[in-house]
Every structure is written in structure tokens, then in C-alpha cells.
Specification:
It is a single chain. This protein is of the alpha/beta class and 236 residues long. The protein has one domain: Nucleotidyltransferase, domain 5 (2-Layer Sandwich). The chain has eight helices and seven strands, in the order ββββααααβααααββ. Helix 5 crosses helix 8.
């Protein structure tokens, strides 16, 4: 299949065995498609290099600061749901061989430890950074910020709860997506949870907003004076 000549807007979230992506090449989200990839590199088989991709994984990392400003602002924005924003390892720590080593390096470089949750994402962080450098530049997003932006306030119900799932499905349907059809497009028995698919879907919306110059980001002001790697921003 040849690559589309149209702009592709893609939202990506990590899942148990790789990544789940939702793509659309128009503003009609009813035409969106869902995909499962074991590796991000597989995206280049279908999408062109000018695709706009918003991914729910840290791409830009600090070197010696304990917190990314984008995370600090996102937590303030989410208020009661601030716990959904975690601090990733610093740049050196993400390449550690094990959690204890990563924890020690992060503590030495930033004065702050890291959680096992953040360490377990190290492989995906490295994969995303390498893909962004060599293939298609990735922009980081956070689904909870995007759902809150659409709703005008943070969603109180957790995304894995029954109420939380249906609330997010309703929002996506208001945007024009068809979540049940997206689920049917995924391979049978694929290890993708419902909330992973919904998170990727809302980030597809953010990718379209970015293309149209309508997206917002944290930090809200430029911080070019800080020494950093890659884009240290969260788009929503």
C-alpha cells in the first residue's frame, strides 16, 4: 500500500506489546483508523515523514533538574487528577541497566529518586527518542490534559473505571470518532486495553489541533535558557 499524500494526524499510546495508534488524514474523525504496532519503526511503512504524531510517552528529558516544567504545569492544570502525571528519569538514568542503578543515577544528578513506574517505561522512552531522531519527529501529549481541555475541567472518574471509560467514549463521540469501530479494527486477541485505545484517539485529535495551530502546550512560555534535550513540552 502506498503512503498517503495527505497529512496524517496520529495519536499513539503504549500498550503491553508495543503501541496502539489512531490515525486520520482529514478533520472528519469518523474516518479515523486504529492500528497496533510492535515497534514504532513500523509506522514508516504506512505514514509519510510529514505526519504529525502526538505520543503519550516522555520524549524530552532533563539532564540535572528534578522536574520538567511541563510536568509541573500539567499537574497544576489537572488538580485532583495530578497524580496521572509522573516524572520520567533524567537522561543518563534512562539508559541504566536496572532500576537500582537508575535510581542512584537520578538521585545523584537531580537530587530526586524515581519510581519503578517511570523506570519500567525506559525502553519505550528510548525507542521513542530514537524514532523521533531518525524517522518522524514526535511530540509528547498527555491524554488526561486533552480530555480536561475539551471538557473544560479535569475528569474526576479514573479512566479504567466504568464511569470513566464511558465518559471518555462520550467525549470522543462528540468529536466525531467512532470508538467501537476503532476497536474492531484492531487485531483479534491483541493485548490492548480499552483505555489505551481511547488515549491514542484523543491524541489524534490533538495532532489535528496542532496542524491547525489550535493546540496548547506546557510549559506555556518558552524556557530556552535551560539546558535540555529534545522538545520539553506536553501538547494538548
Amino acid at each position: 500500500m502506498g503512503k498517503s499524500l495527505l497529512n496524517n494526524f496520529i495519536g499513539i499510546d503504549g500498550c503491553k506489546e508495543g503501541w496502539v495508534a489512531v490515525s486520520c488524514n482529514s478533520s472528519s474523525f469518523s474516518e479515523a483508523k486504529a492500528h497496533h504496532y510492535e515497534k514504532l519503526s513500523q509506522l514508516t511503512e504506512k505514514f509519510s515523514n510529514d505526519s504529525i504524531i502526538i505520543i503519550d510517552i516522555p520524549v524530552g528529558l532533563e539532564i540535572n533538574n528534578p522536574n520538567r516544567i511541563c510536568d509541573v504545569e500539567a499537574r497544576k492544570f489537572l488538580g485532583i487528577r495530578s497524580s496521572t502525571i509522573f516524572s520520567p528519569p533524567c537522561l543518563e538514568a534512562v539508559f541504566s541497566e536496572n532500576y537500582n542503578q537508575a535510581r542512584a543515577i537520578n538521585l545523584t544528578n537531580t537530587g530526586k529518586s524515581i519510581s519503578k513506574q517511570s523506570w519500567f517505561l525506559s525502553k519505550k522512552i528510548i525507542e521513542a527518542r530514537e524514532f523521533s531522531e531518525k524517522k518522524i519527529k514526535l511530540k509528547e501529549g498527555h491524554p488526561e490534559c486533552s480530555f480536561a481541555e475539551f471538557e473544560g475541567k479535569p475528569l474526576i472518574d479514573k479512566k479504567k473505571s466504568t464511569r470513566g471509560l464511558f465518559k471518555r467514549i462520550h467525549i470522543l463521540e462528540q468529536l466525531g470518532f467512532r470508538p467501537p469501530l476503532l476497536a474492531e479494527m484492531l487485531p483479534e486477541n491483541t493485548p490492548i486495553k480499552a483505555d489505551d485505545l481511547l488515549d491514542a484517539t484523543i491524541l489524534c485529535w490533538v495532532a489535528n489541533k496542532f496542524y491547525n495551530g489550535e493546540s496548547k502546550k506546557f510549559p506555556s512560555t518558552e524556557t530556552s535558557s535551560r539546558k535540555c534535550h529534545y522538545d520539553l513540552s506536553i501538547y494538548f
